[in-house]
Amino acid sequence: MHRPALVRFAFGVGVLMVMILTLTACGSGSAQEEVKARPLPLYPTDNALRPGEYHSVKFKPLLSFQVSKPWSITAAQLSDFIELGYEGETGFISVANVEEVFKPGTMNVVDAPKDLVGWLQQHPYLKTSKPEPITLGGVRGEQLEVLVDHLPKDPNGYCGSDCLDIAPLSNDEAFFKEVNKRRVFVLEDVKGDTVMIWFAGPPDTFDKFAPEARKVVESVKWEGS
To answer: What pTM value is reported for the model?
Structure first.
């Protein structure tokens, strides 16, 4: 092969290799992005979520978080509510955009207070620990233990006779079961919204479950923050 032809051939091969490497890198990056942030299923499923990062679809403000097995979706995703379950009934993580609350001891709905942590502390049917500062996804808030101290003498709430109604949702409600232990995280300004996150479970499994739940909560990120 003549030298000019050899040079042209080598140059052509070099260009082709660069193109192949570029396309491979782009494709790999896209695949990684797809795996990194999957859409969170809208409805409950018997199958555990694959390990990785998920982003909300209906829930606002948009958020993402990371899970490992054996977390699963245990309630329909709403514009103001997400629920994840861990190994069946071991424990749950709930995320709620709280715009309204139930007036304690009644089913009357009122606007959520600006100081939701203070409202929890002063609630006549709840027992709380001292709030501690927390930052989730760059947003500052407070965390505290919240237990149902006792129920109204004549419980007539939507959730039943063994739980306490806390906040109405778009087509459901947030409630605290009397028996469960619970840690609550309150973020009062997530793009102007008040978001409450809590994980809860039976006392006999809570201490084992809590570290796994905290990993998920601490991985929360807010879109644009």
So the answer is: 0.83
